[in-house]
Amino acid sequence: MNNDNFPSKFWFILAFIGLFMAAAFSQSYKIVDTGQTKFYNNFSEISSPAAGAAFYGQDAQFTCQQPSYTDNGDGTITDNVTGLMWQKSADTDSNGEINFADKLTYSEALAGAASCRLAGHYDWRLPTIKELYSLIMFYGEDPSGYTGTSTDNLIPFINPDYFDIDYGDTDAGERIIDAQFATSTRYISTTMGGNETMFGVNFVDGRIKGYPCGSTPIDPEGKGFYVLYVRGNTAYGVNDFVNNNNGTITDRATGLMWTQADNGEAVLWQDALAYPQQKNAENYLGHNDWRLPNVKELQSIVDYTRAPAVTNSPAIDPLFNCSMITDEGGGTNYPFYWSGTTHANMQNGGSAAYVAFGEGLGWMEMPPNSRSYNLQDVHGAGCQRSDPKTGDPADYPYGHGPQGDVIRIYNYVRLVRTIDAAKDVGQFENAHPQQFELSQNYPNPFNPTTRIQFTLPTVSQVSLNIYDLHGQEVISLVGGQLNAGTHAVEWQAQNQASGIYFYTLQSDAFSETKRMVLLK
Q1: Do 506 and 463 touch, CB atoms closer than 8 A?
Q2: What is the CA radius of gyration of the chain?
Q3: pTM (2 decimals)?
Q4: 13 close to 117: Cβ distance less than 8 angstroms
Q5: Closest CA to 382 of 235, 157, 191
Q6: 206 and 293 housed in the same domain
């Protein structure tokens, strides 16, 4: 061995590993930090808690991708973290004021993107909910309950040094918090008893909610929204999940690793913060750096193509396991999940942000002032709201707020950690299976939806077909070329009769059949 060449070879190998990991974890979906720097207990601001102390492990104790913007001086703002370019101002009519006249209906917001020529660019688009949520900052304070009319001392949930937005137009009869921004993300189900719904972000009260995107009795011409158009990085918000086959899921787009299962029970916020500390002491799933996700990390794994009423599943990729709950109306549903992010109000820090992977339920008084309440999906699976950190849910029999948002106080937990390229390279390699494998469907028996998972060792031309007891093909779930790795698909059998069915995974080098039972 020539020792003179060793250093150069050594650094070449390290460089190669670095390039490999950069490709493996491209981070096309970088999550911008929430901006929360204050610490809170159940009610108010506190000093930074020490490891092992109560309330340790909250948002402000972890530093993620810090916000970085460039004002291009032409009415656009570049987000240096996400690679997205934004319209700077919500002043749609360009008269120097932002008010009710600048709001667009959903159809107008979609059409306006195609005709936008800001700064000479022709590729502006209405942002998705994940793109728009990248701008939210949780140093904002929710003014809900504020009875004043001045907005001078209010702190929005977006950086006002770069973006020109405003509050609801009180001169037009709006509330201060009526500052909802439109996105292109439609809810695949409906809300409020049948409204076609869009997910929007409110940078005044710091929430994602579902809003009607068509005519309603209140807004016959359609509700109006503020708009910020976006361009660039069309991969932003697109997950790239890998099942590591060890109880963890890696998202190569964000560089985050998640626990495949949740904690299995509803807990208070303080107990949610303590949970990762307990699991780290156990070196849970081979790691001791788990944490409670901040709310932007948690929202990143929402799958907005899913909803309980349509897909009979939570709004998350089926690679994840999600506890089922009985909701306030006695129906089957899925939980709200705590984040480590306090949702501060002007008065206190007594609430924490959560993301709903089941329906965003609320008790609607119907008809108004009748004292007769109807539980409905009012904000959609994938909404982000907040719950009191402690208290008794029984004190809120018909929820809280104008839509009667259900108040649970006890919510579920899913842990996250940041990928360490050097430490986790072996784990990433193990994520690629060495052989074909067809797993037993889950649940089994099922009614009416079940998930089928399989793994491929190489890029393969495969088919996954369902057959009845007589050998007749019922449906083809997969047919084509897939990459190596773990894949999962769902079969929705609501139109099929109860009985025994078979599913077969087949490629040039592999064929296997398993049995399942549909029991209605």
Answers
A1: yes
A2: 24
A3: 0.80
A4: no
A5: 191
A6: no
Residue 423 lies in a domain: no
**How far apart are the C-alpha atoms of 184 and 164, rounded to whole Å?**
21
- Count of CB atoms situated within 10 Å of the CB of 251: 23
What span, in angstroms and rounded, lies between the C-alpha atoms of 485 and 497? 33
Task: Let me know whether 139 and 169 are in one domain.
Answer: yes
Q: How many domains does the chain fold into?
A: 3
CA 248, chain centre distance (Å): 18
Q: Where are the extended beta strands (E) located within 269-407?
A: 325-326, 332-333, 336-342, 351-356, 361-365, 373-377, 384-388
Q: Residues 420-428: what's their mean pLDDT?
A: 63
DSSP lists the bridge partners of residue 465 as 476, 504
Structural domain boundaries, residue 448: 432-518
CA distances from 517 to 405, 445, 454, 464, 498 (A): 38, 5, 18, 17, 8
Amino acid at 360: G
Same domain, yes or no: 54 and 75: no
Would 466 be classed as within a structural domain? yes
Same domain, yes or no: 469 and 501: yes
Domain match, 295 and 391 both: yes
Query: In this structure, what CATH number is given to the domain that contains residue 475?
Result: 2.60.40.1930
pLDDT average, residue stretch 272-301: 97
Closest CA to 329 of 349, 353, 358, 350: 358
Determine phi and psi for 394, rounding to 5 degrees.
Answer: -65, -20
pLDDT digits (tens, 9 = 90+) for 60-100: 999 889 999 999 999 999 999 999 999 999 999 999 999 99
What average pLDDT does range 156-171 have in this prediction? 95
**Does residue 399 form part of some domain?**
yes
